[in-house]
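Researcher: We're teaching a course module on how sequence relates to structure. For the next exercise, students receive a sequence and then see the predicted structure as tokens, so they can try to spot secondary structure elements on their own. Here is the exercise chain.
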Amino acid sequence: MSSSAMTSEAASSEAATPTGAPITVGLAFDTGGRGDGTFNDSAGRGSDKAKADLGVKVNELEASSDDDRVPNITLLSSQKNDPIIAVGFLFGDTIKAAAAANPDLTYAIVDSVVDEPNVKSLLFASEQGSFLVGAAAALKSKSGMIGFIGGQEGALIKQFEAGYVAGAKAVNPDIKIDSKYLGADGDNAAWNSPDKAKEIAKSWYAAGTDIIYSAAGGSGAGTVEAAVEAKKWAIGVDSDQYLTSTPEQQKVILTSMLKRVDSAVYQTIKAVQDGDKSGGIQTFDLKVDGVGYATSGGYIDDIVPQLEAFKAKIISGEIKVPTQ
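Model: And here is the predicted structure for the students to work with:
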């Protein structure tokens, strides 16, 4: 953590803000920060929209390492930013302690449930979006062999894998799906090991796999590198990775599973500015456009009708997507 990580004006010293008046937001990025191409970037887009549309001020801090989470949240709390939004489940214990110590402030956390009355827990039906890109992979695979690379082998990323496998098998029950994780639950290095992801992806591509979906934070860059070298497909996650890739990389990004962290961050900021300082769980699913898939590049334009048909069945409840 460093003072240079603060990217906007100093926070107000006042904890309370009149309803509808401009507020000062604290945004705590996890490791990777802006430029990670996935969920940190998405959160940043949400705060950027809030600055533009709502006139709020935003103070940003990035966790350069695991040791930065506690001091970053402590600093944002001491400055009386309100709300304070933590990007990632690894902030769970930190947010719980900070919220208990600062009941006058509102907190929010992405991808985790913190049971405190002043914490908004922002969850996503990642399995639903993953089902759709799994279906896309099966529809586009020529070899009948696809793959999934996860970060930590915990419940959160198991959602992505379960949805992806279900979507692929809904198209082709006989499709072969390889899955591998970069670390055990709690191994935070799994999110920033692109070399490991690249090694796995290279071996799978060489063996005939033609599409790999990675839900592994910054590690997913290694899958894209391997796809470029093998001239095969990669599927991005969280953000539309086509939009933040080089022209060479854009040629291999079939689609991306969109987890609309940007929408969740924006809605949270707006709610607090409008006077809603309550806690509770909010789930962003296909019904509210909280998850989805990207069409940038035009590579899946021909199968969009089939994907939309699956989407409608998920929303109606006809298809129930597994989470594990």
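Model: If you want an answer key for the exercise: The mean pLDDT is 92. The two ends are 35 Å apart (CA to CA).
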